[in-house]
Amino acid sequence: MNNAKDIILSASERFSASDITGSVFVGFDGFIDNILRPVKTRINNCEFEPVSDIETFSERIRSGAGKSINIEIVKDRSSMGGNGPIMANSLSLLGNSTDIIGSFGKNEILPVFKPFTDRCRTALSICEPGITDAFEFNDGKVMFNYPQSVLDISWNLITQTAGLERLKDMIGRNDYLALVNWTMIPQMNDIFGKMTELLSNLPGRKTVYIDLTDPKKRSREDLKHCMERLLEMSDRADVILGLNESEAEQCAAVTGAQTAYSDIKELAESIHKVLPLRAIVIHSIKQAAICAVEGSFLVNGPYTPDPKLSTGAGDVFNAGFYAGYIAGLNLEQCLVTGVCNSGYYVRNTKPADKRELIGFMKAFAEET
Question: pTM for this structure?
Fold first, then answer.
């Protein structure tokens, strides 16, 4: 393909024509997201002007240093959150079946998760969910997390709650896995190791999509250990590491990859040289890139300066990419399904089904 429009059209046509769907096992988190808007100017009791960008928000906070400050917060809504549930929900809307284990409630699945978990083939909850206060801005989001019991998720908790044999059955019947939110689950390196052992005793070779979630708060030693675990897992499965640009920079630093780059494709190539997994996928606000044995690609996404919702956009990108991958698209086309799935989400505050995603892809092609 010679131009962006052709690439997008080829992706939409191939995704539309494909009747290939998959079954995906997803674990192990779950959050309740409070979507919040800081008030810049209160107009009346019903209307306000929100703070539009993170820099303005930070300057507002900084102005209170040594004094005090009052910032009004408006809650748009509370909704199902967590990397696993948001990704799995999008995958299911795009036609794939899902099994999920996560933190949706201690004794029963909480009502906020039920519309999603009712669509899953199996949904098991191992503990209470965490809570995220997500401050939305036009140029990104600032998330304050209350991980609560999510911090205690471990291989023992998973196997004791789900049962080891049941977990083996769930993993065994899914060709695709997504293991997400490494940062918020301190024992995830151990979970990765146990999953590798489990995969070693199962027939066939599965595909595993990994999402870290901003690892800045974890030690560099922990992150380096994570990369080593993923290399070990790649001996038993096809491992795809999905990163945003900040996460990719951190992974490059701990793996010894080249940290200077001209674009995110070059960054993906640098990481893949020292971390030769099935693929390194990087997404930013405006672009997405991939590096794998087949080659490396960079695509522009349907950027909007005025997103209605950005919390969860990365998880929806992951789902769009993975849905394209499962459907048999080539890697460049998978980037297109990823950026368009995310682009639809930030404009419509909800994930697309397959028909809606294809329609959005075609419209994006005409605008390109």
Answer: 0.93
